[in-house]
């Protein structure tokens, strides 16, 4: 009998979770049983993400050892991220204007959800200027940055550490060997944890459906359809064109990442797949020093699905309240989102925090978010999957741009993409 692939196992877990959640909809006891299983799986993933990022970047940078080359890669990466996320914002705004998902919504029929837990975080983010955010990339205490999960500060410190190891030559080899061993051990642990993914997915989706029920989607069905339709268009049209230019078709990329996409979608957690997409893109032909820098950095600067959703949701709220946003207002919204959406990936409920910070700045009512908070988890699943595709493609684009993309004939990987 043929063994079921990991993607198949995760999909089965997803289906069973939806069925169990639907059967026990409104029963809080189900969530109390399933939530610890889902939380344990996510905690296992989060446990290994930072050690992998730190070790991988240090090993990759020490291997390159050229600060000019790294600076050039960094500049190209940030430029690419800015272009793609700006296009995502424009696509989100355009879709909201074309399909008008907020027009005619009866707010009296919608349930509201408490969003106070996000307000304080949003206010603290609003008070930071772009210069403040840039300054905070440099950690005063790298151990504290690691403890807090501040990804940009961790990346900066790891880059500096890697350059230091390269600069001291022979003396740095034992340190480099230690981090190489750490990376290898963490990837081994990742493969063990991934065997638990079907159970984690079953629990997490079961909790979601049992709490909110599929019926909760009906009053905001037009928003859900517009968000998902727009994200599908963005992946296959925008990212599809980019991938074709890079010589690695979008369908080939999605097939290569099918396990990770199902997992990211089910858990609504990009962190759940970070180690595996780094590993897969390296095996697909991207050099280690590029995957180790581009993909973790993309988690703060290249959240295509999230920025698209934030733009669309902001216009949706304006439409729901009957607020007519002029072209100038929408350009202002785009410019604000270009700033507020950067560098806060480690903040819980990041899309809500960004939206809260953005709505206040462009004069839209914050209370509108309370109407869509209940279905945010369903929307989060889609935007997380789009983020994964965008960051994986970014590694290929930068590798091609640098002229170092070398497809490898690794059977285990290339068979999945063929």
Can you describe this structure?
- The chain crosses the membrane at residues 7-25, 45-65, 77-99, 151-168, 227-251, 307-323.
- One of its GO terms (cellular component) is plasma membrane.
- The protein has 418 residues and is mainly α.
- It has a single domain (6-70, 78-417), classed as Proton glutamate symport protein (Orthogonal Bundle), CATH 1.10.3860.
- Helices cover 76% and strands 0% of the residues.
- It has 20 helices and no strands.
- The chain has helices at 6-23, 28-64, 67-99, 116-126, 130-135, 142-148, 151-167, 173-194, 197-212, 221-246, 250-256, 258-267, 274-284, 288-301, 304-320, 327-340, 350-362, 368-372, 376-401, 411-417.
- Helix 13 (274-284) packs across helix 14.
- The longest helix is centred in the first third of the chain and has 37 residues, at 28-64.
- The protein is globular, with a radius of gyration of 21 Å.
- The model has no long low-confidence stretch (mean pLDDT 85).
Write the layout of secondary structure elements.
Blueprint: H1 6-23, H2 28-64, H3 67-99, H4 116-126, H5 130-135, H6 142-148, H7 151-167, H8 173-194, H9 197-212, H10 221-246, H11 250-256, H12 258-267, H13 274-284, H14 288-301, H15 304-320, H16 327-340, H17 350-362, H18 368-372, H19 376-401, H20 411-417
How many separate helices? 20
The structure class reads mainly alpha
What's the SSE pattern? HHHHHHHHHHHHHHHHHHHH
CATH topology descriptor? Proton glutamate symport protein
Strand content: under 5%
- Level-2 CATH architecture: Orthogonal Bundle
**Number of DSSP-assigned strands:** 0
Summed over residues and divided by their number, the pLDDT gives a mean of 85
> How far apart lie the N and C ends?
23 Å
CATH class: Mainly Alpha
Residues in helices, as a percent range: over 70%
Poorly predicted tracts of residues: none
Shape: globular
Largest sheet: none
Radius of gyration: 21 Å
CATH homologous superfamily heading: Sodium:dicarboxylate symporter
Provide the number of structural domains: 1
């Amino acid at each position: 009998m043929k063994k079921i692939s990991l993607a198949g196992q995760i999909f089965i877990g997803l289906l069973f979770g939806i069925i169990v959640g639907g059967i026990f909809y409104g029963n809080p006891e189900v969530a109390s049983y399933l939530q610890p299983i889902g939380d344990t799986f996510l905690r296992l993933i989060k446990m290994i993400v930072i050690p992998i990022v730190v070790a991988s970047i240090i090993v990759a940078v020490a291997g390159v050892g050229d600060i000019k080359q790294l600076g050039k890669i960094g500049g190209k990466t940030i430029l690419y991220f800015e272009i793609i996320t700006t296009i995502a914002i424009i696509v989100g705004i355009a879709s909201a204007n074309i399909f008008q998902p907020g027009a005619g919504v009866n707010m009296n029929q919608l349930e509201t959800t408490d969003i106070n837990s996000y307000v304080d975080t949003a206010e603290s983010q609003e008070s930071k200027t772009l210069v403040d955010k840039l300054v905070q990339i440099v950690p005063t205490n790298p151990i504290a940055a690691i403890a807090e999960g501040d990804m940009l500060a961790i990346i900066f410190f790891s880059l500096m550490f890697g350059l230091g190891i390269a600069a001291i030559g022979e003396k740095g080899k034992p340190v480099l060997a230690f981090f190489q061993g750490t990376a290898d051990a963490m990837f081994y642990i990742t493969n063990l944890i991934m065997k638990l993914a079907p159970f984690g997915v079953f629990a997490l989706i079961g909790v979601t459906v049992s709490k909110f029920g599929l019926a909760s989607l009906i009053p905001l069905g037009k928003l859900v359809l517009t968000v998902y339709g727009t994200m599908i268009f963005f992946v296959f049209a925008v990212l599809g064109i980019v991938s074709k230019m890079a010589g690695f078709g979008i369908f080939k990329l999605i097939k290569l990442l099918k396990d990770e996409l199902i997992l990211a979608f089910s858990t609504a957690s990009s962190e759940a797949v970070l180690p595996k997409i780094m590993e897969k893109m390296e095996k697909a032909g991207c050099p280690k020093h590029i995957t180790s820098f581009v993909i973790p950095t993309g988690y703060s600067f290249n959240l295509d699905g999230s920025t698209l959703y934030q733009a669309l949701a902001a216009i949706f709220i304006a439409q729901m309240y009957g607020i007519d946003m002029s072209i100038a207002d929408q350009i202002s919204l785009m410019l604000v989102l270009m700033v507020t959406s950067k560098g806060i990936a480690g903040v819980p409920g990041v899309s809500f925090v960004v939206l809260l910070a953005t709505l206040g700045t462009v004069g839209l009512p914050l209370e509108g978010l309370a109407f869509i908070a209940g279905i945010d988890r369903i929307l989060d699943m889609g935007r997380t999957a789009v983020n994964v595709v965008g960051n994986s493609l970014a590694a290929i684009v930068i590798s091609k741009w640098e002229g170092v993309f070398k497809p490898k004939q690794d059977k285990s990987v290339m068979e999945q993409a063929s």
